[in-house]
Amino acid sequence: MASDKRNFVLREENGEETSVYSGQVPRQAALKAARKFDPAESEEQASRSQFRLREKGTKKLHNYEGWAWRSDAPDDKPDWMPETITEANVSKEGIEHLEEL
Questions:
Q1: pTM of the full predicted structure?
Q2: Stretch 31-53: mean pLDDT, rounded?
Q3: E strands within 1-101?
Q4: What's the CA gap between 38 and 66, in Å, rounded?
């Protein structure tokens, strides 16, 4: 039960499903998806985007608002990590149930 990864697919407005993100909970996958947004210079300047993730094998759509920004890497960062990283945050807007896929 240590790695009960679930797969969530990014669903566009037209119903097309593109990228797949995995996580133990929907929020974990949503944070990964939000990190792909064009990052702002700071969290305060970040524009918020609406997006939806569908859990694979279900008809549940998780609706989120997400935003991303650039930040300095922590002082104790590993050698491979760049000086500037992309951070993200999400806010869950609700859940929809699809009639059909």
A1: 0.88
A2: 96
A3: 6-11, 17-23, 49-55, 60-72, 84-97
A4: 11
